[in-house]
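note to self — DONT lose this again. spent like an hour looking for the file last time. sequence + predicted structure for the chain T wanted, 141 res
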Amino acid sequence: MTETVTVPKEEWEKLVKEVEELKQMLEDYYKTLQPILYIVKKLPDLLTDPTMYKSLTPIFTLLSTMDNINITALNALTYGGMTCLDKAIKQAMIDPNKPPEFSITKLLSDKETKIALGILIELLKAMMPCLYDTVRDQTKP
């Protein structure tokens, strides 16, 4: 027992259009996921490649040091840094018609700039030996 159903032409065209749109979406998803599929297929080879491992060692080290970071202090530093950056941007943009002038002698004679550069240099001096040793230890053959 087969039944014949008559569908109005407008409804038929609407259904055909929806199917074409779905087909296009599926093709777009396939194109988007194709590189990910390629990486997943190559992942076992990449994980056993010594060169890849050595190049990713700093990232692995960074992840392992994340356990030792004081998250509260890091959050406070990040929030404080963003708040201060927002204030500094608003202060610098007081008069958009007059861009700030740059003078190295003024910059180096400014007390706040000297303090900021001093803190930055001290942080770099304190961090670099640790970073150097970690990278050296992790990249030994």
